[in-house]
Amino acid sequence: MIITEIRKIGKGQRYYLFVDNDLFGVFEAEILARHCLKTGQEFDKSFFDNLTIENGDYACFNRGLVVLSKSMKSEKMLKDYLKEKKYPIQCIDKAVLKLKEYDYINDELFCQNYISCYCNQKSKRKLKYDLLSKGIDENIIEKNLENINDEDEFSKAYNIAVKYLKNKTYDLKTKQKTFNYLIGKGFDFSVIQNVWEEISNDRN
After folding, report:
1. Domain enclosing residue 81, as ranges
2. pTM > 0.85: yes or no
3. How many domains does the chain have?
4. Are residues 97 and 7 in the same domain?
5. Which parts of the chain fold into alpha helices (H)?
6. Same domain, 32 and 88
C-alpha cells in the first residue's frame, strides 16, 4: 500500500491521505508528522490500521479538550457530545479517561459549580433532576445539596415569584400562572402556597 498523495484541507491542521490513488481518510497534521509520512512511502495494511486508530484517539482527545476549554462539562455530557460527532466509542473512552486523569473532567467540581450558579434560580428538587440528567452520581448530588434547607427553599421561591409578578395584576389567572411557573422550577406545592399567601399579605 503506497501513499500517493497528502493534501491539506483548507487552513486547518488536517489532511486528506490518499493510498493507492484512493482517499484513505482525513488525518491530523500531528499524526502524519509523528511518522514523517510522505508521498511514495509504502506500508502494509496493519500500519494504516494502527495509524487510523492513533489518529482517532488524537482527534477525539483534542476535540474534547477544545470543548472543555469553552465550558465545564460532566463526563456524560462530554461523552454525549463526542458521540454526536461520530467518534468511535473506543476513542471516546480513551479520551475521557485521559481527560479525567488531567482533571479536565471532574463531576464533583461540576456539581458544586452548577449548584453555585443556579441555587438561586431553581429549587433543590430541580437542581437534583438537572444534575441527574447530566450524569452526576446521586450520592455526589445529595452531598452537595444537603446544606439547602426548607427556609432557603421558601426564600428562593419567594424571590423568584416577586420577580415574576412584577407589574402583574393579582387575580386568579395570575395566581394559576404563578403556581405553574414555580412548579416548573421544582418547588413543592406547599411552599408555593405559602409564598403566594406571603406575597398577597405583603401587597395588602
Report:
1. 3-101
2. no
3. 3
4. yes
5. 29-34, 45-70, 75-84, 89-101, 107-118, 124-133, 138-145, 150-164, 172-184, 189-203
6. yes
